[in-house]
C-alpha cells in the first residue's frame, strides 16, 4: 500500500506544492534530533549513532514516559528489507541491556550534543515529571523505520509482524515540499502509532507488580487538575493504548497521579 502525501496552499484556487528530494537523510535525522515531536511529543532522544555489542550503530534511540525504548532507524541507502531486518537485530540487543546502560548512552549523547543536562535522571524528570530511576525499566521497546517510501514486500512484513507476531515495528514516511523558497516537512505513519504502542515488547519484569497504578495527567487546555479534583476523576488521551489502560482500574485501586513538569500531585 503506497502512501502518497500532498500539501495544498489555500487560496482562491488550491495550489499544490511541489515535492522535492531530501538532500540527505542526515538532514532528516538532525531535524528529528532538534525536535523529536516530529515523530512523537511524548518521546525523548537519549542516543544518536549508538554502538551495539555487535559493533553496529543504531541511528537514534529514544525513550517514553514509561521507560520504554524506541529504536529509530533511517532507511538511508539500505534496501527496504535490510532496514527492517536491521531494526529487529538492534531490538535483540536493546531488550537485554539494563537501565545503567541507558544512563551511559544518554551521558555520551549529551556530551556530544553539548546539552546542559547530562544526567538522564534529571533530563527525564524535566521532560516527564519524574526521575528515570523511579521508572521500572524492563527492556520494553518498539521499532520505527523512517523512510521516504518502502516496497510492497517490506510493508507486508511490517504488517505481518504487527498483526500476527505482535511485534511492535512501524514505519513513518517523510516528504519535503517547497513553496517560494520555503521548504515544508510532511509526515505519515504506516500504522497508527497507538496500535504499535499496544504491542510494546518487554522482558519479564524485575519485580512482581505491587498492584498500584501510575497516571500521567496531562494538565493543559484539554484537562485541568483543578477540575479533576473537583469532580473526582482522572483521564488519559493521545491514543487508545493510554485510555484503555484505565480499564484495568478496580474499586479500591491505589493511584499515583503525576503532572509532567510539576511532579506528583495526588494519591488515592
TrEMBL record:
A Pfam cross-reference name:
NucS_C
The molecule here is called Endonuclease NucS
Q: Which organism is it from?
A: Thalassotalea castellviae
UniProt key word Hydrolase: yes
Q: Which InterPro entries match?
A: NucS_C, tRNA_endonuc-like_dom_sf
Q: Name one GO molecular function term.
A: endonuclease activity
Question: Per the database record, which ranges form the Endonuclease NucS C-terminal domain?
Answer: 25-90
User: What taxonomic classification does the UniProt entry list for its organism?
Assistant: Bacteria, Pseudomonadati, Pseudomonadota, Gammaproteobacteria, Alteromonadales
Entry keyword annotation includes Cell wall biogenesis/degradation? no
Which keywords, in A-to-Z order, does the entry hold? Endonuclease, Hydrolase, Nuclease
Amino acid at each position: 500500500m503506497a502512501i502518497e502525501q500532498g500539501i495544498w496552499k489555500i487560496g482562491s484556487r488550491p495550489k499544490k506544492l511541489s515535492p522535492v528530494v531530501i538532500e540527505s537523510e542526515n538532514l532528516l535525522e538532525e531535524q528529528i534530533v532538534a525536535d523529536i515531536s516530529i515523530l512523537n511529543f511524548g518521546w525523548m532522544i537519549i542516543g544518536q549513532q549508538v554502538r551495539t555489542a555487535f559493533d553496529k550503530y543504531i541511528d537514534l534511540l529514544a525513550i517514553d514516559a514509561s521507560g520504554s525504548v524506541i529504536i529509530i532507524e533511517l532507511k538511508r541507502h539500505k534496501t527496504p528489507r535490510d532496514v527492517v531486518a536491521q531494526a529487529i537485530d538492534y531490538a535483540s540487543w536493546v531488550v537485554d541491556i539494563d537501565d545503567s546502560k541507558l544512563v551511559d548512552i544518554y551521558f555520551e549523547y549529551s556530551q556530544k550534543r553539548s546539552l546542559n543536562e547530562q544526567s538522564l535522571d534529571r533530563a527525564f524528570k524535566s521532560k516527564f515529571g519524574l526521575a528515570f530511576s523511579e521508572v521500572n525499566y524492563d527492556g520494553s521497546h518498539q521499532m520505527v523505520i523512517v523512510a521516504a517510501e518502502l516496497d510492497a514486500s517490506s510493508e507486508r512484513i511490517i504488517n505481518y509482524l504487527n498483526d500476527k507476531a505482535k511485534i511492535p515495528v512501524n514505519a513513518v514516511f517523510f516528504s519535503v515540499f517547497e513553496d517560494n523558497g520555503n521548504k515544508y516537512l510532511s509526515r505519515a505513519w504506516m500504522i497508527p502509532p497507538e496500535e504499535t504502542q499496544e504491542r510494546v515488547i518487554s522482558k519479564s519484569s524485575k519485580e512482581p507488580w505491587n498492584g498500584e497504578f501510575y497516571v500521567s495527567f496531562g494538565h493543559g487546555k484539554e484537562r485541568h487538575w483543578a477540575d479533576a479534583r473537583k469532580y473526582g476523576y482522572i483521564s488519559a488521551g493521545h491514543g487508545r493504548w493510554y485510555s484503555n489502560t484505565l480499564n484495568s482500574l478496580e474499586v479500591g485501586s491505589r493511584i499515583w497521579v503525576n503532572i509532567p513538569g510539576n511532579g506528583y500531585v495526588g494519591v488515592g
